[in-house]
Amino acid sequence: MKMRQTISAFEVAFEQESALERRRREQLRRRAANRSRARRITRTEQKGKVRFSVLVGALTITVIIVVFAMFETLAWLMA
């Protein structure tokens, strides 16, 4: 009788520990997924800032070249 109670108590404790371990693993998995998502968002934002800066620089250079070419052409036509 006492041995059955001991085995029963051991089984209950094992089930409780298993449930706790499952919850812990699920929580760790969710935390890792959240960290991964946050890193991906940060990288995407940084790449977007760099791409925007390159775009602004390219547009600025294009405007300068076009204005210079336009005034040179105008000066050549007026001469």
Describe this structure in words.
The protein is mostly helical. Helices cover 97% and strands 0% of the residues. It has one helix spanning 2-78. It starts with a helix and ends with a helix.
Report the mean per-residue pLDDT as an integer: 93
Tell me which oligomeric state these chains represent.
Answer: single chain
- Briefly note the structural class of the backbone: mainly alpha
Main sheet overview: none
Q: How do you describe this structure in short?
A:
By secondary structure, the chain is mainly alpha-helical. It is 97% helix and 0% strand.
Keywords summarizing the entry:
about 80 residues; rod-shaped
Topology:
Elements: H1 2-78
